[in-house]
Amino acid sequence: MSSVLLAEALAQAQSLGVAREDARILLLHTLGRPLHDRSWLVAHDTDAMPPDAMGQYEALLLRRLKGEPVAYLTGRKPFYGLELAVDSRVLDPRDDTETLIDWALSLCPSSSRPAPLRLLDLGTGSGAIALALRSQLPSVEMTAIDRSEDALAVAAANAERLDLPLRLLAGDWFAPVQDERFDLILSNPPYISENDPHLRALVHEPRAALVSGPDGLDDIRHLVAHAPAHLLPGGWLLLEHGWDQAEAVRALLAEAGFTQVQSRRDLAGIERCSGGCLDSSKAK
C-alpha cells in the first residue's frame, strides 16, 4: 500500500467537505505539531504520513463532518494570543468575542491608580475572557463566575497552566458577589432563542450556555437589571450578543439608566457587543 503525502491528506479532507483551515489544524494535531504551524505544513507537504497517523486523521475528519467543533477534537483553542484547553464542558470560544476584549481594554486606563481595577466576568466558561484580560492587565483584580462547576474546573486548569491567577466563584450570575462593586463587568451570556434553527448545528456544545428564553434575551435582561448594584460610579457593563440583537440590547441599557450606550462591530462588520456606563447619579 502506497504512503499518503501530507498534501494528499489535506486534499482528501477537502474532498470530504471539511474546510481547509479545519483540515490543516486537525492534521497538525494528528502529527503532534503546534496548531498554528501552517508554514511547517507548506514546507513538508511532500512528506509521507506516518503509518499510524492516517487512520487517526480520518477519524477526526469524520467527527468534524458530524459537527463536532475543532477545538473539542484537538482539546485546544487559540484565543487572544493564549492557547486554551477546551472540551465539551464549555463553549468553544469564538473569535468574535475578541471584540469584547478589545473594548474592555480600551476602557482600562494605562496610568497607575491608587487601587487596582476590579473586573468581573460573568459566565466565564473556559475562562477565555477573564484570562485574556488578565494577560493584558497584570495588576487587575479579575473575578470570574460560572454556575457550572464543570466549566469552573476547565477555567481553573487554564488559569494554572497559563500562570494567570483568577478569582473563580461558583454561582448564578451576581449571586456570589452580592455586596461587591466593580469598575467593569462583562459577559458573553447565552443569547440564542429557544427555537433558533442554528441550534441544530450546536448540539455538541452545552445548551445551557447557548439558550436564553423565547427571544434569546432573558439572561441579558437579568444582567442589565442587576448590574447597577454591582458597578462603581462611572463603571461599564459590556455584553456580547447575537447578530440581530444590538438595537434591543441598547434599548435595555438605556431603560436601565446607562449612559454612553453604544455597540461595537466584529471583524465581519456585525454589531457584536453593546454596553453602557453607569452614571454616578444612578449608582445604587
Under the CATH scheme, which class of the largest domain? Alpha Beta
CATH topology of the largest domain: Rossmann fold
The protein's oligomeric status is single chain
Q: What gyration radius follows from the Cα positions, in whole Å?
A: 21 Å
Q: Quick check: average pLDDT?
A: 89
Give the tally of β-strands: 9
Strand order of the largest sheet: 5-4-3-6-7-9-8
Architecture of the largest domain, according to CATH? 3-Layer(aba) Sandwich
Number of domains: 2
Order of helices and strands: HHHHHEEHEHEHEEHEHEE
Biggest sheet details: 7 strands, mixed
Q: Which term fits the overall shape?
A: elongated
- Report the CATH superfamily of the largest domain: Vaccinia Virus protein VP39
How many helical elements?
10
The poorly predicted ranges are none
User: How much of the polypeptide forms β-strand, as a percent range?
Assistant: 15-25%
* DSSP helix fraction: 25-40%
**Derived structural class:** alpha/beta
End-to-end Cα distance? 73 Å
Structure description:
The structure is a single chain. The chain is an alpha/beta fold and 284 residues long. The chain contains ten helices and nine strands. β4 (141-146), α8 and β5 form a beta-alpha-beta unit. α1 crosses α2 (20-30) and α6 (98-107) crosses α7. The model has no long low-confidence stretch (mean pLDDT 89).
